[in-house]
Specification:
With about 375 residues, the protein is of the alpha/beta class. Helix content is about 35%, strand content about 15%. It has 2 domains: about 15-100 and about 110-240, Type I PLP-dependent aspartate aminotransferase-like (Major domain) (Aspartate Aminotransferase, domain 2), CATH 3.40.640; about 245-365, Alpha-Beta Complex (Aspartate Aminotransferase, domain 1), CATH 3.90.1150.10. It has helices at about 15-25, 35-45, 60-70, 70-75, 85-95, 140-150, 200-210, 230-240, 245-260, 290-295, 295-305, 335-345, 355-365, and strands spanning about 50-55, 75-80, 100, 125-130, 150-155, 165, 170, 175-180, 195, 215, 220, 270, 285-290, 345. The protein starts with 12 loop residues before the first helix and ends with a helix. The structure holds pyridoxal-5'-phosphate. The site of pyridoxal-5'-phosphate has 14 residues, from helix 3 and helix 5. Belongs to the DegT/DnrJ/EryC1 family.
């Protein structure tokens, strides 16, 4: 039987129908209606954040957050990493800003905080780090650097839904954090996303910018786009949020089985759990060191594919090696990101994956 790298968690059909019934009655289908507000408040509770603004997807949430913080008008450079989904870089560029790529650390694949300050120039306006695979960036060091150099910090938290650091929701760090609720993520609303923040002055800005910059029935204050989350997808989000603990529990069991099978295998590197950080078990990335393990990442990818098991080279290529960015950048500036992108593989990970299938995948890799 075919195994995909991911499979969306779903509520029961009855549960979803129950949640969308009021929409059929009210005929308010979008424009920040009652279901949107219900979803927003449920998320504020779940993510333990002060403020949260919903978006039609994570990408536009990030793009709009960059604009809302005044960075688009300011212009300049933004320090980020090339080991991410291309959305992070595109959001910077589409705001007229210049990405400056900082390398990642080999342990958790997040921004290497030792290398940030060397990249800061008088043009630097912000840092946009990524909580890769739900691994938390070194938020304490980043905050210190940002304070010292007067920079804004926006986290790409697309992978970090629901994780906490010392009991604090990840969405509380930096000036803002973006979350994605895309169907392939561990929590989803089909498509969807959010920005969390603690400065209340961003609330109105984000609200207006996702709705064409309209600030009242008779005026338009900003040059905004359209990035509103509709009522039907908010309803899907509400249903899935209710099941989130169950979903994480199932993922944890899969995670633990993988760890059991792969620990102490020479040439296989797993992400080590971080102290004081809770995990959401969104992904299971494995780094293959060909010289020690004997097989490369690509060998394993091909082998599993022959058995109809589909893994993902995630992230590959690094963003500074994609066609649209490689002319302006050199991967030699970020050697760790280059190496990890070549050797890492995300194994199947989703709520309904059976432990028997996990064992089958592990047996194929280990034999
Ligand atoms: C999924 C993802 C995004 C984009 O989110 P969408 O909801 O798909 O627009 C951005 N950054 C990272 C790291 C992601 O994984």
């Amino acid at each position: 039987m075919t195994i995909q790298v991911t499979r969306s968690s779903m509520p029961t059909l009855e549960d979803y129908i129950e949640e969308i019934k009021p929409i059929f009655e009210s005929r308010q289908l979008t424009n920040m209606g009652p279901v949107y507000k219900k979803f927003q408040h449920a998320l504020i509770d779940y993510l333990k954040v002060q403020y949260l603004s919903l978006f039609t997807n994570g990408h536009l949430a990030l793009e709009t957050a960059i604009q809302a913080l005044g960075l688009k008008e300011k212009g300049g450079e933004v320090i980020t990493t090339p080991f991410t989904f291309v959305s992070t870089t595109h959001a910077i560029v589409r705001n007229g800003l210049i990405p400056v790529f900082c390398d990642i650390n080999f342990e958790h694949y997040t921004i290497d905080v030792q290398k940030i300050e060397n990249l800061i120039t008088e043009k630097t306006v912000a840092i946009i780090p990524v909580h890769v695979y739900g691994n938390l960036c070194d938020v304490d060091s980043i905050e210190k650097i940002a304070k010292k150099h007067n920079l804004k910090v926006i986290y790409d938290g697309a992978h970090a839904f629901g994780t906490t650091y010392k009991g604090i929701g990840v969405g509380n760090f930096g000036d803002a954090t973006m979350f994605s609720f895309h169907a392939t993520k561990c929590f989803h609303s089909v498509e969807g996303g959010a920005v969390t923040f603690s400065d209340p002055s961003y609330r109105k800005k984000l609200h207006n910018l996702k709705n064409f910059g309209i600030n009242g029935p008779e005026d338009v204050e900003d040059i905004g786009g359209n990035a509103k989350l509709d009522e039907f997808r908010a309803a899907m989000g509400i249903c899935n949020l209710r099941r989130m603990d169950e979903c994480i529990n199932a993922r944890r069991k899969i995670y633990e089985r993988y760890v059991e099978r792969f620990s102490n295998i020479s040439g296989i590197k797993l992400c080590t759990p971080q102290t004081n950080v809770t995990q959401n078990y969104a992904y299971f990335p494995v780094y293959f060191d060909k010289n020690i393990f004997g097989k490369s990442r690509d060998d394993i990818f091909d082998l599993l594919r022959k058995h109809e098991i589909y893994t993902r080279k995630y992230f590959y290529p690094a963003i500074n090696e994609t066609s649209c960015y490689k002319q302006q950048y050199s991967y030699k500036d970020t050697p760790v990101a280059h190496d990890v992108a070549l050797n890492i593989l995300a194994l199947p990970m989703y709520e309904e994956l059976s432990l028997t299938d996990v064992d089958r995948i592990c047996n194929l890799i280990l034999n």
